[in-house]
Amino acid sequence: MKKLTTSLLVVVLSSSVAVVNAQQKKNDTATQTKEIEGVVVTALGIKREKKALGYASQEIKGDLISDAGQTNAVSALSGNVAGVQVTAPSSMGGSTRITMRGISSVTGENRPLIVVDGVPLDNSNVNNEDTQRGAGGRDYGDATFDINPDDIESVTVLKGGPAAALYGYRAGNGAIIYTTKSAKKGRTEVQFNTGVAFESIYIRPKLQNLYGGGSELALQTQKIDGVTYNLPEFGTDESWGPKYDPNLYYLGWDSFDPEFPDQYMKLKQWVAPRKDVDDFFRVGTTYTNNISVAKSFENTNVRLSYTNTKINGIVPNSEIKKDNFSLNVSSKLSDNLKADALFNYVHTAGFNRPEQGYGDNSVAQKFYQWGQRQLDFAELQRYKLPSNGMQRSWNRTSWDDGTPNFSDNPYWTIYENTSDDNRHRFYGNAGLTYNFSKKVYVSGKVYGDTYSQTITSRVAIGSAAQSQYNVRKSNNSEFNYEGRLHYNDNFGDFSLNTFAGFNIMDRKWDIMEGKSVGGLIIPNLYNLSNSREVPKASNASYHLGVRSLFASVSLGYKDFLFLEATGRNDWFSMLNEDQFYPSVTGSFVFSKVLKADWISFGKVRAGWSRIAGGSDPFIRGTFATIGNSFWGSPTYSMPVIKGEPNLKPEVKTTKEIGLEMNFFKNRIGFDVTYYDVKSTDLILPLPIDPATGFGNRRINAGEMTNKGIEAMVNITPIRTDDFSWDFTWNFTRNRNKLVELQGTLENYILTNAPFRVQLAAQVGYSYGTILGTDFVYDANGNKVVNENGVYKASEIKSLGSILPDYNMGFRNSFKYKSFGLSFLIDVQQGGKYFSTTHMWGMNNGMLEETALGGNREAGMILPGVKENGAPNDILLDAPTWGKSYYNTVDAQNVFDASYIKLRDITLSYDLPKSFIGNSIQGIRVSAFARNLFAWNLAFKGVDPENTSYGSGNIQGLEGGSLPSTRMYGVNVNFKF
């Protein structure tokens, strides 16, 4: 694939140069130069000339996000920005993992700072560790889901320390700055945007359709009322049973309930179901309606916006409703004084987000890992008894005992074992700017972000698992108080831009949880007071503050040579030492010196920064753990990890150099950056002698490096009065290495998958190493089997890292008169993930491969050699072969995470003025599709992006994923 993509790029570049030479226009220069040397939003929301920047940044327009029907403003960046890796699962409202320039911390935060109109937006990962490691749970998504794509004007990505150093410790991993739309002076505009999208299942495991449920090749028999019947093994949730035979009749799981006379004691044919797993899922829908009013008065600009979004997921009885309200006001109070304010209110309500991973309520686990393949989903829909509301499960304990043995009826799961989540959020800013003169001004602002979230979940009485009711309430607030003094001036050939300021950050959050104990008493009453035993309650509160001073000086010479230095000092409430973050950047616009006609723009830049990371509150202390009371007395225990009073922040040092060039009147351009990042003083829990009373002690130790290249190529092969073609290529290649932990410590285990493998930080390897058993090979590279004929397993070793070798995206945009066409191809090469679905799907005879082409009876001889070197000739029966995927070689279930995706395609048309008349300024109709096709998948049954269930550091452990989806939709935009 490397050769293919390289050749493709060479062909495009070569052909584009030829076209460009033949089709240059005089008016191209002014337009493109304005884009290249224009104004962009940088750290702290300060607008700067792009040519003066000595660090890597990239801007994309909001239309690119909204036109493609995106509902998540973060996942929309996938494939569009160099240096950025986005993992965007297609689950309803699921978490989006985004990193820039690799992983820098073993246990700390590795995601960039999200900023909306100057507001540092909380993006907490609320999913617990069990959910993230694939052990079962609901993915409640990220808080950045609250950003409204319809309100976005532009997105600026500050990719590293030199670009984001002014934000201090929070932006050590870069920053993503969203700027929302505002009213334009002298204009009044009303817009209404309405759209609908349809979502259907796409990538999912292929299931065998030749054998039914059970563990034996023959049905059981049972005499009932003097008649002998064939019965499947109701209590077994595997599919190693008999081959389908229309002449074989049996009594099914639903044949023993007199309340259903059409099913009671009725025989069925032993055949494949008419309605199978795919028929369980529905076509998901997303409805979006936005109205905005922007009005410019004499000295005041106001924009109001309201967006309603409703998502119905592919799993029945699941939905998300979201309401976004935005008010943006700016007013010139006097000749020198300006006020501005931005207010956002968001209500996000999710109902019954599907559980994923290896959990009791995960339908994906029941469909693709454990089950019986003869089950007809049309019959499963009658999932409970009308008389008492109790469950009818296919997985009966026995023919005369309908109690679920292991698995619930999937329709019981989605209609009875539900969840709710609600988030109310307010965020925005208010500030004043006073101009003392044209050269000096002062600004002061308050930024606020606060929300409350309530999550409840329930397991009904009559489920296979113990009934329960859980509730979690959390509150989060952060306020930043900021003031800056700016001075800008020119001295002959020199220009000066400088400012200094302060920031006071205050953040609080608290969590309260309640859980039933011992099950519930009264059916359908979901209240903690309905707990059989005394319910368990817990709460925690956190508070941290940071006080900061910062300054920046930028010096320019003759508009082609620029030098900038910034500094920020943070004083932490959670760490003893304050930290100073310096950065130095420089840029040389050599195109202004060379004066070559064929060079439209050329700039070389370099930057250096040092940023120290903060940490969690109370991390220095050691606090007792309060347990359940014993006979009325409280119990206390020491925590697992001992705090360290002298703990220091992690330190991240970045060096980067870049080159930007545009040629042939800006028809071809590129921007390439090389960076070298070193992280030291990593905060780690070091294992210590249990005799101390602790399992670990937090220390500063270790070193991690990231080195890489990020590149962007822009080409305009054709531009005429009626037609244009623009091509953009983004490329990211990062090499991560954990250089050292502490002393002889080689591994730090991040977590365990539900069963077999571990996710670790391993010295000498890339972060996120999957540890497990591999095949054993002889000297000739043959796999070795043991005396039983199954593959021999090696010792525990590295099976690869979750981090990819490279990511890239190709976007083509075409414009013909009033028609527009744009599509993005998103590519990931390398990385690994572990699939629990593959492991159990093979173990239990569910996946297509386990049917052995319809000849299970012949068994299987594994390719390989015996330990004595002789060719393997040991015949395995089909179940023994399938079950070897669980208890022998883990590498059989570890797959390459590469993919090539047609990420999105958009076709738009602007209706002609002659058609719409003068009462409407414009109407644009857009049709779009997302995740339309995927190629180059190592395991065709799982989308590599659907192997994670949170946005934190735990990735690549697939525990039981729902199918990935395709989406098709249409938007209509009216401008009045």
UniProtKB/TrEMBL annotation:
It is found in: Cell outer membrane. Its main location: membrane. InterPro entries: Beta-barrel_TonB, Beta-barrel_TonB_sf, Plug_dom, Plug_dom_sf, TonB-dep_OMP_SusC/RagA, TonB-dep_rcpt-like. Keywords: Cell outer membrane, Membrane, Signal, TonB box, Transmembrane, Transmembrane beta strand, Transport. It holds the Pfam family Plug. One of its GO terms (cellular component) is cell outer membrane. It is a multi-pass membrane protein. Residues 392-932 form the TonB-dependent receptor-like beta-barrel domain. It comes from the Bacteria. Gene3D superfamilies: TonB-dependent receptor, beta-barrel domain (2.40.170.20), TonB-dependent receptor, plug domain (2.170.130.10). Residues 53-175 form the TonB-dependent receptor plug domain. Residues 1-22 form the signal peptide. PROSITE patterns: TONB_DEPENDENT_REC_3. Belongs to the TonB-dependent receptor family. This is SusC/RagA family TonB-linked outer membrane protein.
